[in-house]
Amino acid sequence: MKKIFLSFIFFPSSILFANTPESTQEVSSPVKSVILYLDGAEVTHNAQVNLSAGRNKIVFVGLSTKLVSKSVQVNVSNDVSILSVSDKVNYLSKQQQNLRIKQLKDSVEFLNNNSKLLQNEKDAYETEKKMLIANQYIGGQNTGVALAALKSSADFFLERIKEINGEVYKIDRKQEKITEAVIKIDNELLELNAKFNQPTAEITVLLSANAKVSATIELKYLVVSSGWAPIYDLRAEDVDKPISLKYKANVYNNSGVDWNDVKLKLSTADPMQSASQPQFNTWWLDYQNNYDHDLNPNYLYNNTQNDNESIIDADKKSQQEFQQMPSQNINSVLSTAPGVSIRGGRQNFNGSGAIQQNPSYKKDNITYEEIQVPELSAEFDIKIPYTIPSDAKPYLVEVTDYKLPATYQHFCAPKLDKDVFLLARITGWEDLNLVEGPANVYYAGTYVGRSYIYIRSTDDTLNLSLGRDRKVIVTRTKQQDLTSTKYIGTNKKESYAYEFVVKNNRKNPINIEIQDQLPVSKQGDISVDILEISKAQQDVITGKLSWNLSLASDETKKFNLAFTIKYPKNKSITKSQAKARYRAKF
Fold first, then answer.
1. Chain centre to alpha carbon of residue 34
2. Measured between alpha carbons, how far is 402 from 134 in angstroms, rounded to an integer?
3. Which helix (H) or strand (E) is 176 found in, with range?
């Protein structure tokens, strides 16, 4: 009997509570803050509401339809209970457009209305012209017309039709200009990613208050089609100063809702990560399958060629051609072509010598690429508020600045390029929570080119090319008196000799590496004999020669290279190397 009595008491009270009228409020709260992930964003709204005693329904309207339902979080102050949270898409409502898009759409409507008015005017002239042509006959078939009347009538028809044709021509020109203007505005709207009559999302929060109270509601949820991508500026003022690294980000918003004057935070975390406990995967160590140390110096050092030309040149080279070129032993030289970097950054090549780009795909008119991020997630608080329109366009955000210690070294391969290149070796970069991305390189206030920073390297040194240093001069001159061709029995012997002169015109001492090469024989009856290499470091497999020199200010040093090639005189061999380039064909 006791159980039945309790159920009887509870049931009517439930009915009474269910019949309590709900107070419904629609809240249009702008975005207050955003945590931007590499792919996705957490959006926060704050709203101040007045609640009645009992149940209150708060409906947040005008939200992004790209919100992730399971990510919705609601916090309420003043001991208010949250009974339920739900979301839906309202197809009858329309997104609030930003001012620029609204102005452009109004301009299109205005121009189209003017075009219609002009068309009506043109139709009237065309109708009058048809009437004049249809009524051009005067008099009857058997009745003559006086000469004066005929001339007057002809003059009238001529003048009026000329006037009509002139007005129609003016209307056509006006309509052409309107059409051109509409096309330009439509293209601008396309650039702004403007979409017409888009629905909005709503989140409904059902609250229970014991008394009339004012409360603050904090609403958070994740949206897709938003994120950020890193970009860096690396600046070196002189060889005795540290490197300045400016950390920046290209931020984009394609959620459908503008972020106006919001507080930003950038994060490398995964917003969709599982709530389950983490588990370790096997940490494998293996060799990198790339040509970090054997890239084509012609491809690396030609900072003046454009990106497409660089890629074409590299793609055209076969693996055999790469192996024949001298490799770089200072962790290779960082190219300013996109995607290429020395240690800390690289561009991969497959077995055929073709470039392997990071895997990528396209979604919502945005191209995504696979990159590597540090295992421990990093966050960056942006100091000043930003406005990011929902147009899927990148907006540059300043993140932070670093000063990094660096050592400098010069490099020259005069056989391939007569200029000397300045290299900077940066240490300590691995502790900066860097994310893979492009880097603009500057030296002494001059833009050198673009590189790419990878974090996959196990090295603790990031090497950058700072371009050509005109104050250090290296010459490679053939010594004609020591260059000769002789015939010895059935063989032909060719002698080659070169003199290298290195001059440091800087006010401070420098270290420089100079590279050249000896030919390598593939045939048993072709021999190469070394006469002089001036204590160079020699790679007997590739034929590469390296001289590491230290020069004081205004100091000059010289050294020599001499060798002979012997082969059967009844055969010819290829002794020169050529560069592949493109030109017009007539």
1. 21
2. 84
3. helix 147-191
Look up tokens 């000059």; give the residue.
556
| Structure token digits, residue 552 | 């004081």
pLDDT digits (tens, 9 = 90+) for 177-231: 999 999 998 888 776 655 555 788 999 999 999 999 999 999 999 999 899 999 9
The C-alpha atoms of residue 390 and residue 408 are separated, in whole angstroms, by: 44
Determine the distance from the C-alpha atom of residue 161 to the mean position of all C-alpha atoms in its chain, rounded to a whole number.
59
Q: Cα separation of 381 and 506, whole Å? A: 42
Q: How far apart are CA 419 and CA 301, in angstroms?
A: 9
Supply the DSSP string of 186-248, one letter for each residue.
HHHHHHTT--SS--EEEEEEEEEESS-EEEEEEEEEEESSEEEEEEEEEEE--TTSPEEEEEE
Among the listed residues 476, 478, 462, 467, the one whose alpha carbon sits nearest the alpha carbon of residue 420:
467
How many Cβ atoms sit within 10 Å of the Cβ of residue 402? Answer: 18
Q: Which residue type does 404 have?
A: L
Question: Are 257 and 31 contacting, i.e. CB atoms less than 8 angstroms apart?
Answer: yes
Q: Mind listing the pLDDT tens digit for each residue in 79-119?
A: 899 999 999 988 776 656 667 777 888 899 999 999 999 99
Give the span between the Cα atoms of 346 and 358, in whole angstroms. 11
